[in-house]
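Collaboration report, partner site 2.

Our partner group contributed sequences for two proteins of shared interest, and the home lab folded both. The records are reproduced in the order in which they were received, starting with the first partner submission.
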Amino acid sequence: MSVRAILDIKGRAVATIAPDATLAQAARLLAEKKIGALVVAAPANGISGIISERDIVRALAGQRERALASPVSEFMTRKVVTCTVDDTVTDLMQRMSAGRFRHVPVIEHGRLAGIVSIGDVVKYRVAEMERESEALRDYIRTA
């Protein structure tokens, strides 16, 4: 199955933040939306980076309270790994595991089309395995 199937279930909304927003604003937005990462996007430049809870923890550990007033661009991950709606869920799982990251923005036709978390991937795979298991049980019962 493809990433498109995950987006069809979870939706395509993506929380973004400007590179010049403060780390405190990013932390507040993550808490309000109950999510783990924000895509950092400048209106004219597209994706500039991604800022996650991990990035914020590292910033606080290194700079303490001073970090909260600093811009997101100072702490964001700049090299953002993305995927497309046509990538397979299996390929995405492997890339996320190998890269040790938990959020991947989805690009479609050169534009941000969604974001997938490792939780989304696991939830989708578990549901897929349950459907397959049920289909096998039905097949055995009718054979």
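Second partner submission, folded after the first:
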Amino acid sequence: MEIFGIPSQALFGQLLIGLINGSFYALLSLGLAVIFGLLNIINFTHGAQYMLGAFVAYLGLTHLNMSYWVALLVAPLVVGFTGMVIERTMLKRLYKLDHLYGLLLTFGLALIIQGLFRNAYGSSGMPYPAPEVFMGAFDLGFMFLPKYRAWVIVASVVVCLATWYVIERTKLGAYLRAATENPSLVQAFGINVPRMITLTYGFGVGLAALAGVMAAPIYQVNPTMGADLIIVVFAVVVIGGMGSIMGAIVTGFGLGLIEGLTKVFYPEASNTVIFVIMTLVLLLKPAGLFGTQK
């Protein structure tokens, strides 16, 4: 069976790959959007923290026999805690300065972290097994859907929507948004704003670590895995709108699918299509598809 002259199995296979990539684009850009939207920090360390999540899972398995399910809980907590230490000791000094200072600091931290892990573990990928429960695939008739990839897609959607709901529809989210606009007023209500900011940064970093654990069985564990992805994720955030939670989610999944379709119909453009879209969006709507001009 062919669709637009393309074998259906090849088309749906690339759409699946695009949806998988989109799941990680959405999770990572969501973390970036949370950090920028609530803290006004452009967190270039995000890719390194994604890599750290995968390494926590890998080292936990090799040294502590830690299961995948435990790693899903432990890695975001461990990496989130390191993120909170970075926020308390470094980033808090930059909040009143231009965004460029935060970008330069986090970029430098990313290079240091990646360099340390590359020196310790080399540049070759290390395998990380998927849980036994996700071995095999679902037969959909027109294609086989690997169970682990189906889990990644569903888990990413659930985490993204839960995060959006907490930030946009709960009292906690209202406090967070208010703290970015008028911290002194929120402080007057007895809320510890600096602690809230620290926890928010830790949460955004934890989302990156969670994505790293889920990516490990698919892409292997590699010290440069975050560096290869972070530029694309920043493009996703810019297209969706800096700081827009829903923009990060919709754009992440949408661009993953567009990238997958491009590999089918025009493979030569698959590595640049996201940046072409980013250029067009910046020309037509500089604030992003879901962003608002401040």
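Feedback sent to the partner group on the second submission included the following. Strands lie at 2-3, 6-7, 137-139, 144-146. The two ends are 50 Å apart (CA to CA).
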